[in-house]
TrEMBL record:
It holds the Pfam family SCO1-SenC. PROSITE patterns: THIOREDOXIN_2 (PS51352). It comes from the Bacteria. This is SCO family protein. Residues 34-182 form the Thioredoxin domain. GO terms for molecular function: metal ion binding. InterPro entries: SCO1/SenC, Thioredoxin-like_sf, Thioredoxin_domain. Gene3D superfamilies: Glutaredoxin. Cu cation binds at residues 72, 76, 161. It comes from Pseudidiomarina donghaiensis.
Length: 207
């Protein structure tokens, strides 16, 4: 009888523990997560893969997309280097490949070879993307990002562009956007530590 009582008490304690655990607040990502994920408008862009890419090329992988250009003096190379460093950590949270698309917002100077050489330098997971403004602007805008277009005839210029990083899920839909941190005296960049933490929450919930 005593043994039965101990067993019953143990089972009650176990059930209570499970109920308490299930009702504990779950960690939430700090990124802006789209619920439901947002579809992307059809696009066709040039790439460093040796062929044009479309929506289908985003399927079957997690993709981190950000705007940049090869002449960028600060945000772009810093972000590329940071992403290269954090990728191994991201891969621990998913069995699906994780890729990076660097979308050039300087089609006047960034041809396919230039963006290809730039992307390949950072690793096999990096893809350089480019297009002329009529195709590029709608795509970037659809991602929720922006960039400036230089005055006609300018040759030595900077391109203002978003520093945020967009996460596209393996269905090819926008899953989240990681905003850049703006600290006085420093270039705006996305915290890779926070990105990895957010990805560890987001990736396992994808079905």
């Amino acid at each position: 009888m005593q043994r039965l009582l101990v067993t019953v008490v143990a089972l009650i304690a176990l059930v209570a523990g499970v109920v308490i655990y299930n009702n504990l607040p779950k960690p939430q990502p700090k990124a802006l997560v789209y619920d439901p994920p947002r579809t992307l408008q059809p696009f066709v862009l040039e790439s460093s893969l040796g062929h044009n890419v479309s929506n289908a090329n985003l399927e079957g992988q997690w993709t981190l997309l950000f705007t940049g250009y090869t002449f960028c003096p600060d945000i772009c190379p810093t972000t590329m280097a940071d992403l290269r460093q954090v990728l191994p950590k991201l891969k621990q949270y998913t069995d699906t490949p994780v890729k990076v698309w660097m979308i050039s917002v300087d089609p006047q100077r960034d041809n396919v070879k230039r963006v290809s050489d730039y992307a390949v330098f950072f690793g096999d997971e990096f893809v350089g993307i480019r297009a002329e403004h009529p195709q590029l602007y709608p795509f970037v805008n659809d991602l929720g990002l922006m960039y400036s277009i230089p005055e006609e005839g300018e040759t030595d210029y900077l391109v203002n562009h978003s520093a945020a990083i967009v996460l596209v899920n393996p269905a090819g839909h926008r899953q989240a956007i990681f905003k850049a941190e703006h600290i006085i005296g420093e270039i705006p960049t996305v915290s890779m530590e926070q990105l990895a933490t957010d990805f560890s929450i987001i990736a396992p919930t994808f079905h």
